[in-house]
Amino acid sequence: MNGQKLVIFGATGRTGRQIVDQALQQGREVTAFVRDPQKLPIRHDRLRVITGDVTTDVDAVSRAVSAQDAAISALGKGQSLRSDHLISRSMRTLVPAMERQGVRRLIVVSAFGVGDSRRDATLLQRITFRLMLQDLYADKAAAEEYLRGSSLDWTVIQPTLLTDGPLTGTYRAGERLNLRGLPRISRADVAHFALAQLSDVTYSRKSAAISA
After folding, report:
1. How confident is the model at residue 1 (pLDDT cuts 50, 70, 90)?
2. Nearest CA among 206, 211, 140, 195 for reference residue 19
3. 3 in Cβ contact with 198 (< 8 Å)
4. SS3 letters for 16-71?
5. Residue 100 sits in a domain of what CATH number?
6. Domain total for the chain?
7. Residue-range definition of the domain harbouring residue 85
8. How buried is residue 25: exposed, middle or buried, by Cβ count under 10 Å (0-12/13-18/19+)?
9. What gap in Å lies between CA 184 and CA 203, rounded to an integer?
10. 142-170 pLDDT, tens per residue?
């Protein structure tokens, strides 16, 4: 399975737009699932847009994943520090829809510091997690736990601090990483890695930390 037909959730976010753009450049047929189509400036003859709320629109989510090779979730809360349980609620709609439609491959962009990855966090990262990100990370952790109990062929990507830097194609990935200070990675490189997982089984049903 090479993921030529791909549905992307969270396509209007800064990471999601990178995934959409790079997927189209790779020649894939892309379905973008969005709440507000006006926030997706990309236009292409291989891009289909479906409007809906992934936490509640069961029919729209099922229609979006139908006949796809794979799905990528780049859902997030943007600059907000309140989770509103967005990611965990989304997984409880998306995962059953994929299981019903027989679409098995799901790539989820999460965050470094969620779940077991926190054990490898630097002191600066730990301070940031504790002071600012507890609610967001608790939501992501609940979503990952739910996903692990599914029948899907999933990969959870846990990037360090995201930037809007360029695509370099040069980064480190692994189930565990040795990090220092406040490591970063560009959203473009995260998108590159996410799309590479469509044809790579290294992290099948595993989490992968990623950093520059």
Report:
1. very low
2. 195
3. yes
4. HHHHHHHHHHCCCEEEEEECCHHHCCCCCCCEEEEECCCCCCHHHHHHHHCCCCEE
5. 3.40.50.720
6. 1
7. 5-211
8. exposed
9. 21
10. 999 999 999 999 999 999 999 999 999 99
